[in-house]
Amino acid sequence: MEKKMAGFCIFFLILFLAQEYGVEGKECLNLSDKFKGPCLGSKNCDHHCRDIEHLLSGVCRDDFRCWCNRKC
Hints:
Blueprint: H1 2-20, E1 27-31, H2 42-52, E2 57-60, E3 66-71
């Protein structure tokens, strides 16, 4: 009986871990089309990409431009 219970617990543990480490869609980084001016704070860029362009996220890079993440 204990072996069945241990096997049952291991099965659900593996099932749970498989959900945590599932495959996610590929993301692409693209230059923002609508962001104006130099990108000095990633928080502003992230807000712009999410709320204005309806993309996943945004980040300022070392070229002072806003780059947005989107699903490929």
